[in-house]
Amino acid sequence: MARAVTTGRKDTAGTPWWADAVCYEIFVRSFADFDGDGVGDLEGIRERLGYLDLLGADAVRLSPFYLSPLADNGYDIAGPRAVDPVLGNLDTVASLVTEAHRHDIRVIVDVVPNHTSDRHSWFADALAAARGGPERDRYHFRDGSGPGGTRPPNTWLSATGEPAWTRVQDGQWYLHRLGAGLPDLNWANPEVAADFEHTLRFWLDLGIDGVRVSAAHAMTGPAEVGEGETGTEPFFDGERVHEVHQLVRKVLDEYPHAVAIGEVPLADPRRFARYLRAGELQLAVEYRLANTPFDADAIQATIERTLATATSAGAPAVWACSGHDLHRLAARFGGGQRGTRRARAMAIVVLGLPGLACVFNGDELGLGSSPSDDPRIPVPWEGNEPPFGFSARQDPWLPIPGSWAPLTVEAQLEDAGSTLSLYRRALELRGTHAAFAGTAVRWYGAPPGCFAYRRDPGGLVCALNTSAAPVPVPPGEVLLSSAPLVEGKLPAEAACWLGPVS
Q1: Is 0.85 surpassed by the pTM of this model?
Q2: What b/e string do you get for 6-34 counting C-beta neighbours within 10 Å, with b at 16 or more?
């Protein structure tokens, strides 16, 4: 299937490959199990690259596959340059990247600069070191407050709502603002920056095409942690984070066509845009669309805000509606047939927009329409009973609902009306049709509960109907619709593409 951007290492018409790509996000443990131990692995992904090529993905983003005790879905990293042996090894990563490039698919990996696992060798050294030792300076160790230092240094709470400090055996406390088991690194320590740069180069030299920076707003140094400060909110979005992203960009600029995407969950668009300044991240995502209700006015407002923020920073927008720690799209929209109908409509809306569009593994199958909406449940591939070809074992690491038999790749592949077929056709049009040219978005007047936007200069028009009744379709050739038209009208809770419209 032809696509607008390929891995021929030349960008299209001077536009970076990532500016209008579709990135397929994979939770590694849940995609495909090659070695039959019940856990998805890197070789399973390599074996299924033909499916991703058939789908039309331009890139894949892999969840952390590093050495980890799995206290936080692998984001608690004990070895940032070591592969968890359950998932593969360095040779497996290298072969996956090489084979993905043969399929014209780029590979993006997650990096986590804010913290390590409490099982990291650095943290073990810190616990064994004396107060004030250089090993502790890699993290944020502080004396406590109150009589005998028995109270935390300040009243910060972690992202989980618990105290952001834990006391160690010798009486000092260490900071973990994103949760227990995730000690914050001290980015004022040159060793921290040097080690992170080493990690970036390690994976880039292996051939990866970019990184997604987890918790890109969270790094701190001692001056920002403070001594004896009070307050209930951890200090995020400090000035030091921008020094980190300048380092990331400096390294990536040495690798042609590599991209850095930041996870920046900030409500203030002005603060968000700062991460996209020259010399920092090329892309940033806030997941605002993943929390927007299925309402035309609310969705339009979110899209307008996201586009305005990206435009103010001179960067493409990033669109993401689900992920490994979010509800699946169909589940968030109510589950069942209604959830599926709304999720299909949102796919059309998002994939019609300019920028980087993210698809989480399984969304293209309509997963989440059943009561089992855990996004980490393994992907069903084939057959009539669990584990549906995911693994040779009957008991994969998370159970797969038997009700998913109609949702397997095999069941949907030749069904022209399936959600998988909808995604395949959408990605094919997005990558080949002239109507998708351009980055400008213009809005049209529409009936209550509806909106229509046009993508210029290509002329694509996307119409969404979140109301309870069919509405007239705007003029133009219907390229794709999330549901069949009813007497020439767009059904309730559906979306369509038309174009090119002059």
Answers
A1: yes
A2: bbeeeeeeeebbbbbbbbbbbbbbbbbbb
